[in-house]
Write a structure and sequence with these properties.
Largest sheet: none
Protein name: Prepilin peptidase
InterPro entries: Prepilin_pept_A24_N (IPR010627), Prepilin_peptidase/N-MTase (IPR050882)
Number of helices: 9
Helix content: 55-70%
Pfam family, one: A24_N_bact
Structural class: mainly alpha
Number of domains: 2
Domain Prepilin peptidase A24 N-terminal: 11-89
Keywords: Membrane, Transmembrane, Transmembrane helix
Distance between the termini: 27 Å
Radius of gyration: 18 Å
Number of strands: 0
Length: 233
């Protein structure tokens, strides 16, 4: 069992690493299929041991061969992604039926990463991730349209009142997640947990200057709220 969890962790972490590479290169207009990974500071090729998810950051002690620091975003995003998959497999069980829901939540995690890093998510990414998530809910027989509609109206009203604080993507992302939350009162709880955690964590990061911009990326907090309410409450 432990071996399966380790394999799942590194597979998920590797996919996160690939997604980060893919997202960076397409935004720069570069070929994401060919070409070795290079240091963002000096342009040197990164040795392959340093490319191992999570462990590579430890091997290189957080620095490139040129001496420049490597952003901890990479090992953190990879480690959290791997831990999320292991947790979901443990919670849902190791049956074949759990693979599709785990993959669906993992795709929503990738969207949260994209939003946290760029505060901008490609429409195609949201469509693909959302469609996969909805398909998983339908196959599982646990889709709740009223909860999704309730969150759509609630966050849509926030967008209308505070367009600088909430984006259009937030409306769709939260509504898709809410489709997996049973009762309407729980979807409201999901909304509350999301914005309280965003205020506390986002405010703390901004206070300690870990967050450069005043606007807080909401996708990660929507996913956090979904996991808390959907699993524990």
């Amino acid at each position: 069992m432990i071996l399966i969890y380790l394999v799942a962790f590194f597979l998920a972490a590797s996919f996160v690493s690939f997604f980060n590479l893919f997202d960076d290169r397409r935004r720069r207009g570069e070929n994401w299929v060919a070409g070795r990974s290079r240091c963002e500071s000096c342009g040197r090729r990164i040795p392959w041991p340093y490319l191992i998810p999570v462990l590579g950051y430890i091997f290189c002690r957080g620095r490139c061969t040129c001496g420049e620091k490597i952003s901890p975003y990479h090992p953190l995003s990879e480690g959290i992604g791997g831990a999320l998959v292991v947790f979901l497999l443990h919670y849902l069980g190791m049956e074949k039926a759990s693979v599709f829901p785990v993959a669906a939540v993992f795709l929503m995690y990738l969207l949260a990463l994209e939003d946290s890093r760029h505060q901008d998510v490609f429409t195609g990414d949201l469509v693909v991730g959302g469609a996969f998530f909805v398909a998983a809910l339908i196959l599982d027989g646990s889709i709740y349209p009223l909860s999704g509609a309730f969150l759509f109206c609630l966050i849509g009203a926030l967008y209308f009142l505070f367009p600088k604080a909430v984006g259009e993507g937030d409306i769709y992302y939260a509504s898709i997640l809410a489709l997996g939350i049973g009762e309407i009162w729980r979807s409201y709880l999901f909304f509350t947990v999301t914005f309280v955690s965003a205020a506390l964590i986002g405010g703390g990061l901004y206070f300690f200057k870990c967050l450069k911009q005043k606007a807080v990326p909401m996708f990660p907090f929507f996913l956090l709220g979904f996991l808390i309410v959907g699993i524990y409450l």
